[in-house]
């Protein structure tokens, strides 16, 4: 579908996509070297039972996190969902995100000694999309590590597509409403907008009955990092181009109006104002310089 002829809708250049590189996000203590100077324990993380700081292995610095064996229906790992008493403006160590920004990428490195192979279980990096301390959506980074790495560090990366994140929040906002729907002016303080603004990051292992059962031995992790692709709001599907594929995402949201998935002006609705913005961005086509 060609909508180039619709571009007469005004020169709303505010959405001209910024030519920014991926933005390193302020994940605290990603190399696991620091303890909290006041409260002790691993700075920036809630270390769940079964996990611990280890000096046996380290990719950088002197420490890593050891995620131990995972009993059935149990979870072993660390999470950023821990209170930061030192910063009144950033009360949790969860990582700030830009709702109108790009795809979110997480990387870490893992190691399994040759003489202690992992059997069973699953895991990965889980992402929870949050506003304040309310969880709006959970996205798993699937991971089925078995065997061993021969003692070498192996890179693990997961990318959460921006459209998938919005879709998950949308489903929770509209289909799981028994306890109070939080789409558009839903029960305060959880109405959307305001949009979720941070993520809880959880590297971990889990031993589900349908997910490989219990997991043996230890997986060491190090050098956790998060980035978000540059902001190009009208690029709904996160491929760095504003084209017909994005228009097909725009249309259903525009048709039901209350849909925030294609909202471009931040009012929680997808209406004519957003169409004007989308048409302008479509005319530019390319997000990145
Ligand atoms: Ca696109
Ligand atoms: Ca709007």
* CATH level-1 class of the largest domain: Mainly Beta
Ligands, deduplicated: calcium ion
Silhouette: elongated
Count the strands? 12
Total helical elements: 3
The CATH topology of the largest domain:
Jelly Rolls
CATH architectural name of the largest domain: Sandwich
Low-confidence residue ranges: 1-23
Separation of termini? 25 Å
Structural Rg = 21 Å
- Please tell me the total number of domains: 2
What is the string of SSEs from the N terminus onward?
Answer: EEEEEEEEEEHEEHH
Which band does the percent of strand residues land in? 15-25%
Major beta-sheet overview: 6 strands, antiparallel
Q: Which bin fits the share of residues in helices?
A: 10-25%
The secondary-structure class comes to alpha+beta
| Residue-averaged pLDDT | 84
Summarize it.
The chain has 289 residues and is of the alpha+beta class. It is built from three helices and twelve strands; from the N terminus they run ββββββββββαββαα. The chain binds calcium ion (2 copies).
């Amino acid at each position: 579908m060609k909508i180039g002829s619709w571009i007469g809708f005004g020169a709303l250049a505010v959405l001209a996509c910024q030519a920014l590189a991926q933005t390193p996000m302020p994940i605290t203590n990603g190399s696991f070297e620091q303890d909290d100077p006041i409260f002790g324990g691993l700075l920036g993380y809630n270390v769940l039972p079964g996990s611990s700081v280890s000096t046996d292995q380290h990719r950088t610095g002197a420490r890593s996190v050891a995620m131990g064996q995972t009993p059935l229906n149990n979870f072993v790992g660390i999470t950023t969902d821990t209170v930061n008493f030192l910063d009144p403006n950033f009360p949790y160590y969860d990582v700030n995100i830009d709702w109108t920004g790009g795809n979110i990428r997480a990387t870490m490195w893992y190691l399994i000694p040759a003489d202690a192979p992992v059997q069973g279980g699953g895991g990965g990096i889980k992402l929870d999309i949050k506003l304040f301390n309310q969880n709006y959506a959970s996205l798993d980074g699937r991971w089925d590590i078995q065997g061993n790495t021969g003692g070498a560090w192996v890179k693990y990366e997961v990318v959460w597509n921006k459209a998938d994140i919005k879709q998950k929040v949308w489903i929770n906002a509209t289909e799981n409403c028994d306890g109070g729907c939080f789409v558009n002016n839903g029960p305060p303080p959880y109405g959307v907008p305001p949009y979720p603004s941070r993520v809880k990051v959880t590297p971990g292992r889990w031993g589900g009955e349908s997910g490989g059962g219990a997991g043996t031995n230890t997986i060491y992790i190090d050098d956790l990092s998060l980035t978000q692709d540059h902001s190009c709001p009208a690029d709904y599907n996160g491929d760095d181009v504003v084209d017909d594929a994005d228009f097909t995402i725009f249309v259903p949201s525009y048709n039901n109006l209350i849909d925030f998935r294609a909202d471009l002006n931040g009012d929680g609705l997808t209406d004519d104002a957003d169409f004007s913005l989308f048409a302008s961005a479509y005319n530019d086509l390319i997000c990145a310089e």
